[in-house]
Amino acid sequence: MSTVTFGDYIRKRREEIELPLRKVAAYLDIDTSTLSKVERGERPASPDYLKPLSEILELDLKEVQTTYIADKISKDFGGLEHLSEGLKEAEKQIKSKKR
Amino acid sequence: MSTVTFGDYIRKRREEIELPLRKVAAYLDIDTSTLSKVERGERPASPDYLKPLSEILELDLKEVQTTYIADKISKDFGGLEHLSEGLKEAEKQIKSKKR
DNA sequence: ATTAAATTTGACACATCTGTCCAAAACAAT
DNA sequence: ATTGTTTTGGACAGATGTGTCAAATTTAAT
Predict the structure, then answer these.
(1) B6-98: which CATH architecture?
(2) Residue of chain A whose Cα is closest to the Cα of B79
(3) What are the residue boundaries of the HTH cro/C1-type domain, all occurrences included (chains A, B) (predicted)?
């Protein structure tokens, strides 16, 4: 399975449509350097970036969020033995709350 | 559905078996005050607490972790529209990695 | 009501995080 | 090789997080 990091995911797409970091960073209203670090996984992405990223990279917001969440969870909780069960439980609770 | 916070969960159990904060905190090797804040949700629990908590509170580690994860996820990602999908995806990736 | 124990509060120190700035390096094009 | 552009690196400031300490409050017991 792939397990692509968030950084790789947006970098790949950015190169695909041939936008320089400069442009994308400007659209997100952050420094070029910051975005570079996010793409290389040196820093985590802020959730604030997700919406604008989906816009300028012409990606489905749902996919962007999904990739972001999966990546962050594996980084934040990677060490826990019972992560799978915890996620299932979290899902249940979220669904029940969404009503 | 309940959606019990991690703090409520361990406080309830601690009171059930009638241990003072003092004792539990000592076992976790943290200040009483810190544990008090964790129980009341004023501060997040450190993952380091989970194992010792499960021991001194005589709880299944799996349940402790699960509650911790569910709580933290809802706090960390509460705002995202596509959280459910993201969690499913994260689960998939974790499972595939566990091989 | 006093005393003792348990719990909470708030100020504090120290560490970590987040993003910026600007200089350095890598890359393209000619 | 020089110039222009993109990308990266590292020092930095300000914000946020983590836990401690000591004092204040609450609770329980007598």
Answers:
(1) Orthogonal Bundle (1.10)
(2) A47
(3) 10-64
